[in-house]
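Bit of a strange request maybe. I'm writing a small parser for structure token strings and I need a real example to test against, not something I typed by hand. Could someone generate the tokens for this chain?
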Amino acid sequence: MKARLERLRETLSGKRWQEIWHLADSTLSIFLFFPSMVFYWRGIWDLYGVYIAPHESPERQWWIVTGFGACSIAGYFAAPLLSHLLSYTRSKVVRVIATRAYLYAFAVLAMAYWRGVWCVADSYLLALGWPVCVAGLCISHGFLLVLRCSRTTIFPPFLVNLDTRKDVLSVSTCFRTQVKWREASSVVRYSLDSIFTQFFILTMTIISWRSSLSLLDVFVYPDDWLVSNLVSVGAGVTATIVLFALETTLSRVGVYVERNWRWLRLVYEDAVYVITFGAVSLIWRGAWNLNVIYIITDPKVGGWVNLGIGSVLLLSLQLMSFAGCCGCAYDGRDRVAADAIYPTKYLRRYFRTKQQQATSDVTPSISSREMTTSSAESREEGIWTVSTGTSNDVITDETDVTGSSLTDENRASRSDAASSPITYI
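Reply from user aminoacidic:
Good idea to test on real output. This should exercise your parser:
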């Protein structure tokens, strides 16, 4: 049995199979995961306009929605508290229900903040014309680059954020402050960092997105709305496919740059993700507007239908983290993997997980050397996730490779072991 599992592992981890898994993950990201996010986001976006202060003037309604979304700052404190409470239970069911409930609740507030700031930017900034859009994009994205948070602008299909990872309740703030509740100074630093991340970094991210899409509205067939969006989604899908096809090449170049010019590594990655942001803007603009045109244009009915479809898909695919993770991404934090620059491993991670679980059933005892090797391999798999910037190659909620629940001490030691050799300050 053990020999058969080992042969299966070697077969599925071969170069040809890795190329197949890469193709399958890329296809799922473009044609399943990305549409799921569009359904969810468009649905809840429309429902805010229907149910929150519908009789107020547009400007007043937008500020009310922004205020409601600003309550999402509570998620930065609820996440570590919930993580601490869950450390007292070994029930996987309890963990799954609690974490998914948190992710969904935070997503509701986060989407409100996005809609409010988006509409306020429409009214006070972008209505002044495309030169202001260019200035808004340059200034907001410039701030994100300087603060090393530009990857916060990247969304599906260039991102797969699994709800099953161990750090799903970890909050990644701009200055990476870790809270210690028994130390008042630590709580103050974490609070200030969280406020800055939520209300500055996220606001700059929203303005970058709104400015980018406004420029596309102006320059991509502005006189024909349908053709404009068809061209946008077609160009976005094409650019995404090209970038996925070049992913291994981009990764190898990144590894070469990291080995020979470490100082240049961050510049290289930022350049890749600026191009990626252009592709994401194209595909999101086209897909969103086509959804509005063809999938129930009525905000109330269409909103509920889209929200229902998106919620079911994201929860069943274990991807609610797409919308429910608080915090920002940190540029250049992890080492570049030789085979992937975009964190889109889904089937590859799933089959690797199944192999590890099957192996643990045969050999439940794993030596410390094997554990270290497994941890090193996992660090090679991806370069970023929204939550903490670490690889999201995990097995189940808060479990190790043997299926046992992690204690606070083990969780902390493993986090230190995984982050210290690959963190760039």
